[in-house]
Amino acid sequence: MRPEAIGRVLGIGLRVAGRVAGQRIAATASSPQSAPPTQTARTPSPNPATTTRSNGSLGAAVSRGFGGFFKSFRRVGGIVWLEVTGVFFFLPVLVFAPTLWRTRISWAHGPDHRTFVASAIVVAVFSYLGVTSFWRARRK
Description:
Structural class: mainly alpha
Order of helices and strands: HHH
Strand content: under 5%
Number of helices: 3
Number of domains: 1
Radius of gyration: 30 Å
Largest sheet: none
Oligomer: single chain
Low-confidence stretches: none
């Protein structure tokens, strides 16, 4: 993802979160419960269910705002995770490849046949895992 796109996503997420929070605060401020009390009328106690509901919806709006903000980081984090995993999958390939090369003469029948076969299996499996990890990171 290009830096311009990341900045655009972050800016849009912050604007949406700010707009939602501003609307919630304005709706809470204009409710009848926040009207100034008159001298003759006794002010009713606030309903706990209404207070909880408005705070819960504000929390949900803030949660959605943060979710949108961190969405691009989640994608980039997944790509970085796959690339780091691919590097760690290639480490056994680097360790076992010299052994595979050294014992290539004994591939069919020889004193190092088992070492060659074990090294070939390890190199093949971890090469596959490393390549597919980078391939999946590229597709994301």
